[in-house]
Design brief:
- The structure holds two protein chains of two kinds.
- By secondary structure, chain A is an alpha+beta fold.
- Helices cover 42% and strands 13% of the residues of chain A.
- Chain A has helices spanning 40-44, 52-57, 65-79, 85-111, 118-121, 126-136, 143-158, 179-207, 229-260, 338-341, 372-382, 385-398, 408-438, 488-493, 504-509, 521-529, 534-537; strands at residues 2-6, 16-23, 26-34, 216-217, 220-221, 273-275, 278-280, 289-291, 294-296, 311-314, 360-363, 456-464, 467-476, 479-486.
- Chain A has a three-stranded antiparallel beta sheet with strand order 1-2-3. A three-stranded antiparallel beta sheet of chain A has the order 12-13-14.
- In chain A, helix 12 (385-398) packs antiparallel against helix 13 (408-438).
- The longest helix of chain A has 32 residues, at 229-260.
- Chain A starts with a strand and ends in a 17-residue tail after the last helix.
- Chain B is mainly alpha-helical.
- Chain B has ten helices and two strands, in the order αβααβααααααα.
- Chain B has helices at residues 2-9, 19-23, 39-43, 57-70, 83-86, 90-93, 97-101, 112-115, 134-137, 161-164, and strands at 15-17, 48-50.
- Chain B has a two-stranded parallel sheet.
- The chains are: A alpha+beta, B mainly alpha.
- Chains A and B meet through helix 1 and helix 8 of A and loops of B.
Chain lengths: 554, 172
């Protein structure tokens, strides 16, 4: 039996530590640790509620605007504000732009190197690569292109400074793609580095800049003067360009990986999924969500309704004072410090050992996976025809049944499918915006009163790039009394709870084959498939203490 | 912190990128629960500071290119910010400055002034107190910038702006 620790996990956002126990070449048990704590909820207390979205957005510069979205919605819920239709559409357009940027970056820059062997690409035959790209890619390149790419890659590797390709497991037996597929994929990795620049600009058209959009606020969006033909056509132009990239490059590459690694449609799966749903198409939420709200339980493709009151957070294995599981809106957890914290060294051996700064969110006491796979599964049974048709089409192409979705490859495939459908519907929403403007409706903001007499509690539930995101705010005398974020990566990468129920990534890792414990590539495959964002995931509320908290960056 | 002291000790230059490295960032906002600090506070030496949340990548690249071509770091202000980017106020280069001078202000988001692109000072714009070149180079390869999207500047290239420039929608 061997214990393997990967700390820090590379190619994710944030600070994550994964420990596994390997027996007979397979993962027997796993522990997931978030290793950094910043205290954003403490910082929010006492501040103007309108400022919250600017602060929470700094939870992370990768997901960035999604926290702004959840925050303004939470405050709007608390103050009973309904935003005008144009504001709703503009928010959908920036949110869709975020997904169109985020998902391909995740696949190419964060995930691809688990499946693509860069060093093997150096052995590729350029002519054969050109032939392969003509056969499988929507954007084929000629032999000359691959000769140049190979030369460029060789020069880079020969320089000795491998940059993002350093310190990896090249040559690992789990890599299955032929050299030509690897070279083609490396070309697309570099293509996406350029493409994502244009995708990021889409957010900036309505939201000033990316990262950290500055165009939302409680009440609506600030853009008004720029709701014009120039800006709208700019967004449409970049949108069509991005859709082309997704269709011609991203989707075919995901299909190619899935084909070569079919065994991974049986590894890394979970059974329970939660999707808050998102992209309202009218003021009626959640009924009008384009990606519907719902739950999948026990792997059954049947829609179950969501009751947000059933969400609790467990801290048995987290570095907080013990309490029974509590709903986020009433949490009174206190982070440990000093001797009790024991230097924040993860204890994965003792029965009640604490090993993470993340809490364990549970729905009705169950661990739930969130993310594009959850969104696709819920959409599949929840009435989203475009998702259902696309998922069915992909399953047919790969010659697998729906059970293949409940896996590591399922997660990666679902992300690409959702990205494509989200991009395509954004075109329709842009047309809706144009129709409103033509009718003379240019309203983008709803006025409201906020002063010392303002009190209210609200929640903002979103389904964003990494999954279900919730912000809860309590406003008293016009200021934030309490604030809580339960983010997708807390759901996915949180720890075991007091009943011994593993968190989703921990559970998914169990049964994973590991060919060489010193090169745990297979573990990275499943962890990365969740698209972790740990800066967002660690949080606490502690309204009373003024203690200085010690933390350890591993 | 040990790594920072080790790496920055004999470095030819230490360039801090972003408000977190330059002045502690969002986690250092009151009450700074984790005692977050700037890099220069940790290593005990001044640093070149590409301030901002986020910092503009163009300014960072320009600083590095300046060093590579001319063999020295660009002139900086007393907060370590390169003057070529942070030598003037947002207010000085704002295309809406004329409206400021003419008393043409947005009083509330979505009003007549907002539709006409008037000055955002009265809804909290901190441009008059913020040093950065956002109106000139803008963001995402010149695509847009906050005032261009109808949103006030939040002063993100000033140290401790989270506390000193907030509330962000209230005139100072």
């Amino acid at each position: 039996m061997a214990r393997v620790v990967v700390d820090p996990i590379p190619r994710i956002e944030g600070h994550l530590r994964i420990e596994v126990e390997i027996e007979n070449g397979k993962v027997k048990d796993a522990w997931s640790s978030g290793t950094l704590f910043r205290g954003l909820e403490i910082i929010l207390q006492g501040r103007d509620p309108r400022d919250a979205h600017l602060i929470t957005q700094r939870s992370c510069g990768v997901c960035t605007l999604v926290h702004s979205l959840a925050s303004v919605r939470a405050v709007e819920d608390a103050l009973k504000i309904t935003v005008p239709p144009n504001a709703r559409i503009v928010r959908n357009l920036t949110h869709a732009a975020q997904n169109m940027h985020d998902h391909p970056v995740h696949f190419y820059q964060l995930c691809a190197l688990d499946w693509v062997d860069v060093v093997s690409a150096l052995k590729a035959d350029p002519k054969k690569t050109a032939d392969l790209s003509a056969a499988v890619s929507g954007r084929p390149q000629p032999k000359k292109y691959y000769e140049e790419l190979k030369g460029k890659l060789k020069a880079f590797v020969d320089s000795g400074q491998l940059g993002p390709f350093a310190n990896a497991y090249w040559g690992h037996p789990a890599y299955k793609l032929p050299p030509e597929a690897n070279l083609m994929a490396v070309g697309h990795y570099l293509d996406n580095l350029r493409q994502q620049v244009h995708a990021a600009q889409m957010t900036a058209i309505w939201g000033a800049k990316n990262p950290h959009l500055q165009g939302h606020l409680p009440g609506g969006v600030t853009v008004l003067e720029q709701l014009n033909a120039d800006r709208i056509s700019e967004y449409l132009y970049k949108l069509k360009n991005q859709i082309a990239f997704i269709e011609e490059v991203y989707i075919p590459d995901v299909l190619a990986v899935a084909k070569f690694y079919k065994g991974w449609t049986k590894i890394g799966g979970n059974k329970n999924f939660l999707a808050y749903g998102d992209f309202p198409e009218s003021e009626k939420e959640p009924e009008s969500f384009y990606f519907p709200r719902g739950i999948i339980m026990d792997g059954k493709l049947q829609l179950v309704q969501v009751d947000p009151k059933k969400i609790t957070e467990d801290v048995t294995h987290s570095w907080y004072e013990n309490s029974e599981p509590l709903h986020p809106s009433v949490g009174v957890t206190k982070p440990l410090s000093g001797d009790a914290l024991k230097g924040a060294i993860p204890d994965t051996k003792a029965k009640d050992g604490k090993y993470t700064w993340m809490k364990a969110p549970r729905y009705d006491g169950k661990a739930m996976e969130v993310g594009p796979l959850a969104q696709c599964l819920v959409s599949y049974v929840g009435g989203n025809k475009e998702i259902k048709d696309t998922v069915d089409g992909v399953l047919k192409k790969l010659e697998v049944g729906p059970e293949a979705l409940f896996s590591t490859i399922g997660r990666i495939g679902a992300r690409a499918i959702k990205c494509l459908i989200n991009a395509k519907i954004a075109e329709k929403w842009t047309m809706d915006l144009i129709e409103n403007i033509k009718k003379g409706d240019t309203k983008t903001f709803t006025s409201y009163k906020l002063d010392e007499s303002t009190n209210g509690m609200g929640m903002g539930l979103n389904d964003v790039a990494r999954g279900s995101l919730g912000h809860w705010v309590n406003i008293e005398k016009g200021k934030i009394k309490n604030y809580q974020q339960v983010v997708p990566s807390t759901w996915n990468l949180g720890p075991t709870d007091g009943k011994g129920q593993k968190g989703p990534v921990e559970n998914a890792l169990i049964g994973t084959p590991v060919a060489d414990p010193k090169k745990p590539l297979e573990i990275l495959r499943t962890v990365h498939s969740f698209d972790p964002c740990i800066a967002c995931a660690v949080h606490v509320i502690d309204p009373k203490t003024n203690e200085v908290y010690k933390f350890r960056v591993s | 912190m040990e790594i920072a002291k080790d790496v920055c000790g004999n470095a030819a230059a230490t360039i801090c990128v972003g408000n977190c490295a330059c002045s502690g960032g969002v986690q250092a906002a009151k009450p700074n629960p984790t005692e977050a600090k700037s890099v220069s506070a940790v290593i005990g030496k001044g640093t070149v500071n590409i301030e901002g949340c986020p910092p503009n990548a163009d300014n960072m690249v320009a600083t590095v290119v300046h060093y590579l071509l001319l063999g020295k770091l660009p002139a900086c202000d007393d907060l370590g910010r390169p003057l070529f980017a942070y030598g003037y106020l947002i207010h000085d280069n704002c295309p809406r400055r004329g409206h400021f001078e003419n008393d043409e202000f947005v009083k509330e988001f979505g009003d007549e002034g907002a539709l006409k692109g008037w000055c955002l000072y009265k809804v909290g714009c901190k441009g008059p107190e913020t040093y950065n070149n956002c109106p000139i180079i803008k963001w995402n390869q010149g695509t847009n910038w906050p005032i261009g999207a109808g949103h006030p500047c939040i002063g993100c290239s000033q140290p401790k702006f989270w506390d000193e420039m907030s509330p962000f929608y209230v005139q100072k």
